[in-house]
Amino acid sequence: MVRKGLTSVELLTEVFIERKKRNKADMIAYLQTDVGIRRQHCHNIVRHLAEAQRDDEAAAGALANPNRRITLCVEGNISAGKSSFLQRILKGSVELRDIVEVVPEPVDKWQAVRGAPDALGPPHNMLDAFYKEPQRYAYTFQNYVFLTRVMQEEGSCRGSRPLRLLERSVFSDRMVFVRAVHEAHWMDDMELAVYDSWFDPMVAQLPGVVPDGFVYLHASPETCARRMASRGRAEEGGVSLEYLANLHGKHEEWLRTGALLAGGVPAWHMRPGSQQTLFPTDDALSLRGGQFRLHAPEPSLAMLNPDDEPHSCRGKIYYLNKATQPELQRHINGLPALFLDCDDDIDLERDTGAKARFAQQISEFSGFVRRLQARRGLALPQRPRLQYPNGARLSAADAGGLQRQFLQGLQKQLVY
Q1: Active site residues
Q2: Is residue 41, in this structure, part of any structural domain at all?
Q3: CB burial string 273-296: b at 16+ within 10 A, e below
């Protein structure tokens, strides 16, 4: 690859687009015959290039259609207050009532699973079965949850209102709940491997399940346990505080502590008065445990200044980043998540001030997400930069030497 002048991902992409006209067969033949890469690796390289181009075209499509509606997923722990937030604060707000379509979580489908239309007998309560025998039904339940979210998206994707709010997403399923049940040994390694084998390809074929951003309703595990007991959903009687604490930690890692603030500062790195200049670029070779890791680009975040964020949301928006969170799905890399503290009990029927404050934040955040899409579409790819995981940049000489070392090692693995 180095001898052929293919010293960066950008140059390889240029060959794919300009010289091979995005023809996968021609590109595979070129890599195998002219460059000398094994055929199996050629297929993997070309598939990656094609997927990256599809993602770029999707971003360009969003820019070309600035009036398309925005989809935000409202995330949070069990009993964090998602349903109340959606039904009372947003639907009851004059500011949002006429522009928002609320799509609640399909709990009713999980509680009444029916087979064929002419099937005899009562429906099955999948939610109850999971809570009673989690080790037996964890995979089956998570599989069905994904399916019902896809069916729900199909039913709500053609709405006319400019803002759609979904209660949870397939990504909270993967980043929070699937991880939690696997760690609890309710889903074994084989079942997790099966889930992962179809999750990413399915999401790639279902762009409608990928939101434009997230709203994270934060509440402590203790608060969630108290609210869960008060609402009295029969299936949740056996949910422990320990399980809620595990889910809480995974929500925090995914949407907050494992994300970045404006300017690229890791959320855990931020200090009062610190300069927000650090950006662990995704299109970089990061040194992790003595190994290099190549990440996908997200140039728009580096361009983002905290002052660009709406005043009501400033300091509350986190940006999902695969460089700091390797398990993150590529489909949501760089998406913003608005943090809203819902730990205090609020009378949503009477506290008009709190209702108006939340409505303003959602309204301004959705507008910001739309502007951010345009910024992402206009942003030019950055040149790769080498750095360590803590953000410290290498000198130009050291970076050049390490990059050559990486490419030469890669070449040895790929050629005959």
Answers
A1: 167
A2: no
A3: eeebebbbbbbbbbbeeeebeebb
